[in-house]
Amino acid sequence: MAAPSDTPTLFTYSGTLRVVVVSGTGLLAQDANGLSDPYVKVTALPPTPVASSAKAAKAKAADAIFKTPVIKKTLEPRWDAEGSIALAHAGRVHFEVKDDDKFGHNDPMGEAVLPLLALAHGRKVTKVLRLVPGAATDLPPRLGSITVSLQLESAADLTPVYDLDLVDALGNDMELAVEHGLPLPIDGAAATEGIFRVPGNADHILRLKEAANFGKLPEILTEPASDVASVAGAFKLWFRELLVPLVPASYYDAALAATDPPTARALVDSLPEANQNIIEFLARFLYTFTSDPASVEATKMDAKNMAMTRPPSASSRLAPLAAFGPPSP
């Protein structure tokens, strides 16, 4: 379940955000009958939190707002409400759940904040957002969650490097992805213990992804957000978010049966060309670590250990056997 975040983004987004507020689960009872009349207000906010409540209120009022209908007498509402928000230099999306009250103040029921950098560009993404008290400090800690579906259609200044189809992304050329801004852990990686195994900072990884999508990666590679473990995490994230896995589902049984390098090599050769090229690139890159005794000593990552850090989009059997032996010429 995704937790709310007020992590500031490095860039702002303009364009259109399409939102579907689907449902709520385990919401807070605010009425005497033990139920509520919940609705959700969705607001686009600036990229960084605003210091004072007065400034925050002004910022919220200035941005486009989408509001769901009220669902009467329930703690498990089903809204299925669709709307669009025009983004102008926005960085976050704010979801505020309230209890509708005809004769008084609409009581808060919790809120959630989602950075736009967490959304996959151009794809509809479903998120389960845990509600927190936010500014309403008198609320209990457990407020339930809401399920939302979002699709970010950003302006032309965003050129995605992540969340792409293999062929559309690269024209079958992995080096092209690196040239266009895929975070590649090189500086200091060969001397970093646990490289590719020790997790990076989640916020840093998302910032690196965002910078890559905006073509601004070189500008932050000297900043603290670009520690070696986080750059390695951003590199692994690229494989995780491919629309088509390196080893498609139809090859899964054959991959599990590939128990020796020649069989695994033959399986790689049977994959589509784009998949082959990316696996070959990955093999060559990781082999620079596993073939160097000094690097293995410093990182404590020999071929077997490195195989355990395979991208989730590759088969558990195929990755260690096909990607970590000497690459083909």
Automatic annotation (TrEMBL):
SUPFAM superfamilies: C2 domain (Calcium/lipid-binding domain, CaLB), GTPase activation domain, GAP
Stretch list, region Disordered: 308-329
Domain C2 as annotated: residue spans: 1-129
GO biological process entries: signal transduction
Residue ranges of domain Rho-GAP in the record: 150-329
GO molecular function: GTPase activator activity
Pfam families, alphabetized: C2, RhoGAP
Feature: compositional bias, Low complexity: 310-323
InterPro entries reported for this sequence: C2_dom, C2_domain_sf, Rho_GTPase_activation_prot, RhoGAP_dom
UniProt GO cellular component terms: cytoplasm
Organism domain of life: Eukaryota
Record's protein name: Uncharacterized protein
Lineage: Eukaryota, Apusozoa, Apusomonadida, Apusomonadidae, Thecamonas
